[in-house]
Amino acid sequence: MDVDAILPVVEMGKIEADAQFWKAIELTNKSLLPEGLYVSHLFTDEQVALTPNWLAKIVPVEIGDLKHLRLFRPSTIDLILTKMMRNDRQDIGDIAFILSHEHVDPIELDKAFASVKPLGLEELQHIFSKMQPQVREMVARLNGTTIAQGGFRHDLDPDWWSKWTQPSVAPERAKEKDRSHEL
Description:
Elements: E1 2-7, H1 12-17, H2 21-32, E2 38-44, E3 59-61, E4 71-73, H3 76-82, H4 89-101, H5 106-115, H6 122-142, H7 160-165, H8 171-182
Parallel strand pairs: 1-2
Antiparallel strand pairs: 3-4
Helix pairs in contact: 4-6, 5-6
């Protein structure tokens, strides 16, 4: 698995001037190798969707016995925002996984959507905007509320997770299934 790193623009001068930075990345990758991880992408905070105060909300990540390295991840909402830029099946699965493990307040999510600076590439901005209703619906479903017609409460439906994560039955198979129930 790759590990993406977000570097604060305010620190880029220091990072670029530090001759040991790339050596540290190399050593970090060697250290993370037993965990099956490696640092592969380095982004500045201006290149990804984040709330303006994301750096004040970072969460420590405990991984092994790293003496000279401290790892942090974005807050849950900021992490979700970073996953909304590609409309990628893996990223959508990651968002569902995150939401299944941590509560996200829909109001806080909407505030985060509104506070994200416009992304540099128009295509990424379009995808990010297009993903917002989908993520809102995921949050609503996992919180046991509905925001769209035809929604359901997951606390009343024992199969809610499989219905949410599995592709729907093809129309032809659905008709066959209905016919088999009629017999």
